[in-house]
Please model this.
Amino acid sequence: MDNSAPPLRSSTEHDSAPAEQPLLPLDDDEPIPFVLAAAEEEPVGFALTARARRAVAPDSLPDLTLVQRDGAAPAPTPDPDGGVDRPGDTRPARARALRRAGVPTGEIAEQLDADPLTVAAWVGEVAPTGRRRSSARLQAVAPTPAVSDETEEELAHHLARADAASRARGRLREDAPFAVGVGLLAAIATVDRHAVTLRSADLRVVGRVLRWLGTEAPGITDQARVIARVGPQLAGDLARHRVADHLGLALEQVSWTRWRGASDPSGLEVLVRLADPSGVTMVAGWIDAALEPSDTSLDLAF
Model:
């Protein structure tokens, strides 16, 4: 048995032995000791964001309130870029909330004192947007007659619309450019008795329709109102100039709003509102003639 093995050291003796410190070589090859010092345990200050508080301490957040000036919401200031979204303007969010609750866009426009086309852009849809004349405020002023003015206007609109459809049927069979124009119009238009609203993400189609309408119904595009829905990664002022150039309209006729739900961050969609009273009924009749159901197929002039 070999008794020459070194004696065992106790754990106390092993722990008390000084540890060899690593050396950091310098350019002149003169090593110096590299000493690791333990950091002092001092508290580090931090603050939670509102989003973090909602996750870890929701009860610590105060209730949200709408700040008003002198009892009224501050009026939005004009934007030279043509944007309809203003800092501090809560109407876009309120419009979307009301629409999710089932309120029609026309009533939303009346409640928020906003343009119907702007409301349609905020909520992302095109629907009948005429403001109701039989609102509670007007009913409080005067009683409703047996036959209201709104009913008479509705009847006159349908009569003029039916007459325009009757006169358009022959042109659809004989006039190829007219048939193409009505077909494109019907694909992107929503019509009520107050206005024709065009909606498309293809500026070429909208531009073609507007140029055709300017020829068939002179003056109908003079008061056109356009709102461009602009994706999050697209500059609004540049999109506004692009839309005005493609559609052949004055820059003052084009506004823009941010398209927060766009599937494409650089997406662009335009809404065009034509509110010429006589032009609206005529255009509505053209669309009715092209889309009306019939037992016999309508031979369009293609």
Observations:
- Residues 226 and 252 are 9 Å apart (CA to CA).
- Confidence is low (pLDDT under 50) at residues 71-78, 128-146.
